[in-house]
Amino acid sequence: MNEAEILERVREIFQDNFDIEPSRVKPEAHLFEELDLDSIDAVDLAIKLQEMTGRRIKPEEFKSVRTVSDVISAVESLLATQA
Predict the structure, then answer these.
(1) What structural domains and CATH numbers belong to the chain?
(2) Mostly located where (predicted)?
(3) pTM to 2 decimal places
(4) Buried b vs exposed e over 25-60: b needs ≥16 C-beta within 10 Å?
(5) Nearest CA among 7, 15, 2, 11 for reference residue 69
């Protein structure tokens, strides 16, 4: 899965779970300030990413996630550990 495909899946997750318009989910968008996620939403997002990748996200790794780009990087590293 390449970066564009991951972004597309992340946009679907945001739309389906948080009612956020896909056009707002840009790599530079800040999860908490621009997309209005809260800490519970962040946990839900982590669970959805785990379902998407089939890999467990370590909480300490997800704490540093602040932007959509960070989410994409986290998914890429999860997928890389599968290979």
Answers:
(1) 3-82 (1.10.1200.10)
(2) cytoplasm
(3) 0.90
(4) beeebebeeebebeeebeeebbebbeebbebebeee
(5) 7
